[in-house]
Amino acid sequence: MRWLMIAFCFFAVAISYIDRVNLAIAAPHIKADMGIDDASMGLILGAFFWTYALMQIPAGRLMDKLGARIGLAFAVAWWSIFTVFTAAGRGIASLFGCRLLLGLGEAGCNPGCVKVVYSWFPKHERATASGLFDAGPRAGTAMALPLVAWLISTWNWEMSFIVTGALGLVWVALWLLVYREPEHIKGVDAQQIANLVEDRGHKTMGDTVNVPWTSLFRYRTIWGMMLGFFCMNFVNYFFITWFPTYLTSAHGFSLKELGTLGAIPALMGVPGSILGGVVSDWLYHRKGFSLTAARKICLVGGMLCSSVIALAVFTDSIPLILTLFSITYASLAFTAANIWTLPADVAPTPHHVATIGGIQNFASNIAGIITASFTGLVLALTSGSFVIPLSVAGGMCVLGALSFLFVVGKIEPLQARPSSQQKWQRSETEAAASIN
């Protein structure tokens, strides 16, 4: 059953990426249709990330309170509806507004999936499960290129948003029909449930004390996770926003080539994501590495390998460029599989798993805002040159590796810290007891 649940997460994340990538693919056609320049299109492409980033922490808190079943259903339905509405956009303002509302819904996707992993998988399988659902972005990006390109060439760019939005509504109906927590699935052995609860590794205090979510920012590890994920997504979101334009404007790709050759890097990300999770769990469970070593080897190694994206500025060879981007995308996916295990690995209580997922994803998606707008501005100032954006991306990969290596501490549940009110109540109780 747990593999069925993670398969649903895979498709949810894949659909979310189809719905956010479709604008990047349709961008040249929308620009021609509406007379929108590169700088304005950069703002439209970046609009999604404003609400997506700002809503990460509220969405994580909501997932922890509502649970994955209701929370994910609401999120997917919301963003699917506004994907469809994008087809009605007729200018910068309307497209910008639809992308803001799209980001509002998609904010709940990854925190919800993290919650599913935490509920259904023991510690030694979490990276594998995270790698499987985090293969969704790569699969979604790869599927979006041929699907959206075909829809645009067969009908128009408006139809691409209607069809991709409808996919999410189908997912919602199936999810509500199938998903339940392990405790509510008939036939699941009671010992399996007990093992899951025990493997979560939270002490009694962590389960009973009210730990304010704001106190999470006191931990160095949380800040290291935020910085590392920011650097990873700075590069990752180049693929989501400007990569199709890079291939068409800098290297003359046709719409057909964009849907075939252009999908190769994203396709390489699918095995990269799965391999990242499998290797991490193999090092921990089979080879006897500590959880910290197993996670950090994959996090740091993946980020360093992805820095080869900067080498693309030195060649015009299409096969070599696609090879470099494929290595980068696969390495980012390898890293991301382990990034998404961290919230469950370090959460001080079960009620903070999705919240931590939202916190690190909030930081990472500020990078999305910066990448989209920064690249658009640089292109406008340099007559369409991608040298600076690709060079900066390579440097961010190295910075991310250093963050995971030196800023993130030991990978273990953070020590639960009670609120000030609880400390006061405990002091009063201890004082009364001493008097008695």
Walkthrough of the structure:
The protein has one domain: MFS general substrate transporter like domains (Growth Hormone, Chain: A), CATH 1.20.1250. It is globular and about 60 Å long. It has 436 residues and is mainly alpha-helical. It is built from 21 helices and no strands.
Give a quick precis of the structure:
The protein is mostly helical and 436 residues long. It is built from 21 helices and no strands. 78% of the residues lie in helices and 0% in strands.
Please describe the structure with a list of short key phrases separated by commas or semicolons.
disordered C terminus, 436 residues, single chain, Growth Hormone, Chain: A, mainly alpha, globular
Q: Name the average pLDDT.
A: 87
Helix/strand-derived class?
mainly alpha
* Assembly context of the chains: single chain
Estimate what percentage of residues fall within beta strands: under 5%
> SSE order, as H and E?
HHHHHHHHHHHHHHHHHHHHH
Span between termini = 54 Å
Helix content range: over 70%
Number of domains: 1
Largest sheet: none
Overall geometry comes to globular
| CATH 4th-level superfamily | MFS general substrate transporter like domains
CATH topology type = Growth Hormone, Chain: A
What are the segments in which pLDDT stays under 50 over at least 5 consecutive residues?
203-208, 421-436
Rg for CA atoms: 22 Å
User: How many beta-strand elements?
Assistant: 0
Can you name the CATH architecture? Up-down Bundle
